[in-house]
Amino acid sequence: MLARLLRLARKRADLTQRELADRSGVAQPAIARIESGRASPRAATAERLLAACGFRLTIEPRRGEGVDRTAIRELLELTPDARARLAAEEANRVSAALSHSRRRGRQ
User: Of 19, 38, 67, 77, most Cβ neighbours within 10 A?
Assistant: First the structure.
């Protein structure tokens, strides 16, 4: 994946491997190995190469990664009416809990 990303960034910057090497301080043969997938650069090297192409490496959480979808699937198996009733019941429980906590706060 990084091989394709680096090659795309270099081509969008309209740079040869040699020009990227001059800008980044990374040897041209190393860039060739990275772009061919024969070498995996350290994060700092990848950042330096991408920065020399005018791009930035960022890390973001993947949406939905680590989410337990069991409850979602169970809710989707319910009919719309059943989901509406369940939502109303939950709203009543939340309202009751809030009222209870407010009463306790006044004591």
Answer: 19
